């Protein structure tokens, strides 16, 4: 991290915070382990649970979210595969070449990541990461001074802001999924359609305003050229040359020909995409739920690649890139088990929503989600635990459930800018460590607070 001075107040703030985080932030896996200890102690000291009981809650939670965890991994992997399609890669390369300044490059990456993550957060995360690396690489080759750590956080802004009230947002989709936990518990009488959440005027207005405001903050944070640290200070220069594979598929046997058959892959891909289109044509956008999103993106990806082996190979690469998430997801599920089993989650949620009024409730829901997300970075996983309390309180205060869900989703996404769990694929693609970039993540988190507090409170539903 550069120790040179100069720059505006915002630039100096970002630089100093980055230096502090680089010195103190643990690795993402250690982060999960430390949080496990914190929640364990909280259950023992605050809720009066015995150590053996807390270990039991931990073990029970470890396996409680396997279905949901698989859904989350599929969202990420199917988005990853689409992001690495040659045509998408070509578009990313062209976009990267349109920037001529460090601040402009950061804004470009941030806007693309936020828009793409609203469409599908797995794709947005990978597109943001790939675009950040490509912009950094081209800037190095063209002699443009771009601060690579901030560029990487710009690529993560979709997960840190827009994803959870977008088309693949866990909380809005979960309450629109048949026989969901809210209906099973009697908290809701029926489904809450996405016209009341994702496509409400409240959510759409927040999306536009958030992208504009975050872009301005990214622009202001971008260091002057003399303080910018390019990609070559973090990534081996030998890896920064053009490396485009122009070779076609190897076809040596009839089996190879079948594996690479556009007809074989195209027919089933077309059937899957056609079924998705038919589903939306008959049920409208309210058909969106986690299973439908995953199904649609899997077959859109296969339709793009067409050849079964080509899609399979890209899918396997994506699974490798998500290995850290697969490893850590059970640990965070264990944290959910301890928080839920000990009553910590309900205690926290009840304490926060008890001071809410109809006017302040959206901001309280945002804060509640933000705090819990630090311990449980799983939007849908935490929503299944905390959501019933939030929804019941919203109904008691006369706040629309859709508005409460969106406000909660904003808080869940917001503190991803401090929680490194979902950044693991981005770190692998960009060649960075969590502590290299999350100082700027924290700077974005803090600078977004005034805007989000005001927007959630005063934007009409």
Automatic annotation (TrEMBL):
InterPro entries: SCFA_transpt_AtoE. Keywords: Membrane, Transmembrane, Transmembrane helix. The chain crosses the membrane at residues 29-46, 58-83, 103-132, 144-165, 199-221, 263-281, 287-306, 318-339, 351-376, 437-459. Pfam families: SCFA_trans. PANTHER family: SHORT-CHAIN FATTY ACID TRANSPORTER-RELATED (PTHR41983). This is Short-chain fatty acid transporter. It comes from Halobaculum halobium. The lineage of its organism: Archaea, Methanobacteriati, Methanobacteriota, Stenosarchaea group, Halobacteria.
């Amino acid at each position: 991290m550069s120790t040179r001075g100069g720059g505006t107040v915002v630039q100096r703030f970002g630089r100093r915070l980055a230096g502090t985080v680089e010195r103190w932030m643990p690795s993402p896996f250690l982060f999960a382990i430390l949080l496990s200890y914190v929640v364990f102690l909280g259950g023992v000291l605050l809720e009066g649970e015995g150590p053996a009981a807390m270990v039991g809650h931990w073990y029970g939670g470890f396996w409680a979210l396997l279905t949901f965890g698989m859904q989350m991994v599929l969202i990420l992997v199917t988005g990853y595969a689409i992001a690495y399609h040659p045509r998408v890669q070509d578009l990313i390369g062209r976009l990267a070449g349109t920037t001529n300044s460090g601040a402009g490059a950061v804004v470009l990456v941030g806007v693309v990541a936020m828009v793409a993550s609203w469409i599908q957060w797995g794709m947005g995360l990978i597109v943001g990461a790939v675009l950040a690396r490509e912009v950094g690489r081209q800037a190095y080759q063209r002699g443009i001074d771009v601060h690579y750590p901030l560029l990487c956080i710009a690529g993560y802004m979709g997960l840190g802001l827009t994803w959870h009230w977008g088309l693949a947002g866990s909380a809005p989709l979960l309450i629109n999924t048949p026989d969901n936990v809210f209906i099973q518990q009697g908290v809701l009488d029926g489904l809450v359609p996405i016209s009341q959440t994702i496509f409400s005027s409240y959510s759409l207005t927040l999306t536009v305003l958030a992208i504009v405001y975050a872009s301005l903050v990214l622009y202001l944070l971008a260091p002057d050229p003399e303080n910018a640290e390019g990609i070559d200070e973090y990534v081996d220069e030998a890896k920064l040359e053009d490396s485009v594979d122009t070779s076609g598929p190897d076809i040596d046997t009839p089996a190879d020909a079948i594996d690479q058959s556009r007809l074989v892959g195209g027919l089933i891909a077309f059937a899957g995409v056609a079924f998705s289109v038919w589903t939306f044509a008959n049920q409208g956008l309210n058909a969106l739920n986690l299973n439908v999103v995953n199904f649609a993106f899997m077959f859109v990806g296969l339709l793009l690649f067409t050849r079964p082996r080509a899609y399979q190979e890209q899918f396997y690469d994506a699974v490798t890139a998500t290995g850290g998430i697969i490893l850590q997801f059970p640990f965070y599920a264990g944290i959910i088990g301890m928080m839920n089993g000990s009553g910590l989650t309900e205690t926290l949620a009840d304490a926060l929503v008890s001071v809410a009024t109809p006017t302040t409730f959206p901001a309280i829901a945002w804060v509640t989600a933000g705090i819990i997300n630090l311990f449980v970075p799983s939007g849908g996983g935490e929503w299944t635990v905390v959501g019933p309390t939030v929804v019941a309180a919203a109904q008691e205060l006369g706040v629309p459930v859709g508005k409460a869900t969106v406000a909660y989703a904003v808080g869940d996404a917001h503190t991803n800018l401090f929680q490194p769990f979902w950044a693991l694929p981005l770190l692998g693609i960009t060649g960075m460590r969590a502590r290299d970039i999350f100082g700027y993540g924290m700077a974005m988190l803090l600078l977004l607070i005034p805007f989000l507090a005001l927007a959630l409170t005063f934007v009409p539903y």
